[in-house]
Structure formats: structure tokens, C-alpha cells
Specification:
Largest sheet: 5 strands, parallel
Oligomer: single chain
CATH topology of one domain: Rossmann fold
CATH superfamily of one domain: HUPs
CATH architecture of one domain: 3-Layer(aba) Sandwich
Number of helices: 8
């Protein structure tokens, strides 16, 4: 047992594998902090939900008594592991006592699990992989559906995700964001397929420009997917 158990993930969206690890955290500590990564990313096929929506999925999947033991710490992406680790530690320190015995719950899935070794001093609570469930499959099933096939698609996900997630997917499907995300999802899949037969791994070189004038920074609004309609610094592929 530890005083506080930490569980880190993106939860895009929450599935039953996530819940199995969360329950292990709750079994090992009276206080659990869920660190939600990619917290302020714009909606995309990879990050379709806000961190608040992901928190709601997690809480709604738990009994009321367990919800009261759960705190959520949203953390942005830094693209620098040392800076990200520092941000996580700072956030956790603000929510725990200075002498708390902290445990980190997780399992080594692939290279994306390397962060589990980045927190010396926290006890690692290793959990075996919970079946073949993964969020990518859930997202592909959801975005690959049509209005006619969506109910059947959600039904197929019923044994992979909690009811709170299925409700969140249904709500997202009723918004204007859903067809836009589907369009981007299809574009990315076709782009990968077009390069799948390349005789060598393709390398794409891009460049962005930071244009500053009178203490203002130039931004453009993207006209095409990915990120259609979002603001960005000007840039593109080197041809």
C-alpha cells in the first residue's frame, strides 16, 4: 500500500483497460491522482476529447465512494520529457503531503511507456496488460462509422469501454466537430496508405516560420486537414 497512487494516461477515450489500472490504483491507495496528458490539445482524431470530458468519463465509470478518492491533474504536452516530468512532479506535490509515500501505477506497453522509469522515488506498481484493448482501435471504430452504422459500431465497443465512454462518443457524434474529425481521420489514413508501399521509410522535412512584428506574432488559419480551421504559425513541407 502507498499513501497516494499516480496513474498517468491520455484516456482518448477511456476504455476497460484504463479502468482496470485505475481500480488497481484505488486498491493500493486511499488517494489516487490521475494525470491526464495532452490536456489542452485541440480536438483531433488522436485527441477528440477535452481533458474535462475525459475526467467525466473516468468519474462516471466509478462508484460514488471511489469518485471522492480521485483527483485529476491535467498536464499539457511539452515534447521534452525532462520538462514534462518536472511539471508532473510539481502538480503531484501540490496535491500531496510532503512525506507521502507515492506509487506509480502502469504497465510497459511499448516505447510510450518509458515514462514509468522517469520518476525515481515513486514505487512502481506494475500491472499486466489488460487484454488487447487499446484506444486507437476504439477511435478507428468510432470515426470509421457512418450515421447508419454508428449504433452498431458503438454496440461493438460495449465490451471494450464503459457506458460513460459510450455516452461521450454518442454526444460527440451529435456535434459539428464529428464530421470534421471523420474527414481528418480519413485523410490521415489515406495518406499513410499512399506511402505504405514505399521501398524505404519516408522522411518528410517541414519548416515553420516565427514572424514577429511590433511584439505581435503572425498566425495563419489552416485551410485544410489536418488541423483545418485551427491557428498555426506559417510553414509547410520543403519540396
Amino acid at each position: 500500500m502507498v499513501d497516494t497512487a499516480i496513474y498517468i494516461g491520455r484516456f482518448e477515450p477511456v476504455h476497460n483497460g484504463h479502468l482496470a489500472l485505475l481500480r488497481r490504483a484505488l486498491d493500493n491507495a486511499a488517494h489516487v491522482i490521475v494525470v491526464i496528458g495532452s490536456a489542452w490539445q485541440a480536438r483531433s482524431p488522436k485527441n477528440p476529447f477535452t481533458w474535462q470530458e475525459r475526467e467525466a468519463m473516468l468519474r462516471d465509470a466509478l462508484p460514488p465512494a471511489d469518485r471522492s478518492r480521485l483527483q485529476v491533474l491535467p498536464v499539457r504536452d511539452y515534447y521534452n520529457e525532462a520538462v514534462w516530468v518536472k511539471a508532473v512532479r510539481k502538480g503531484v506535490a501540490a496535491l500531496t503531503k510532503a512525506d507521502a509515500h507515492v506509487g506509480l501505477v502502469g504497465h510497459f506497453k511499448d516505447a510510450t511507456s518509458s515514462y514509468l522509469g522517469a520518476f525515481p522515488g515513486w514505487q512502481l506498481i506494475h500491472v499486466e496488460r489488460q487484454g488487447d484493448i487499446d484506444a486507437t482501435t476504439v477511435r478507428d471504430t468510432f470515426f470509421g462509422a457512418t450515421p447508419e452504422t454508428l449504433p452498431a459500431a458503438l454496440h461493438r465497443l460495449a465490451d471494450q469501454a464503459p457506458a460513460s465512454t459510450l455516452r461521450a462518443l454518442e454526444r460527440l457524434a451529435q456535434t459539428a466537430a464529428y464530421p470534421a474529425l471523420q474527414e481528418e481521420w480519413a485523410m490521415l489514413r489515406s495518406y499513410r496508405a499512399a506511402w505504405a508501399a514505399a521501398p524505404y521509410p519516408p522522411v518528410f522535412v517541414t519548416v515553420d516560420a516565427l514572424v514577429r512584428c511590433q511584439n505581435r506574432i503572425l498566425l495563419i488559419r489552416r485551410a485544410h486537414a489536418p488541423g483545418k480551421g485551427l491557428r498555426a504559425v506559417p510553414g509547410g513541407f520543403i519540396e
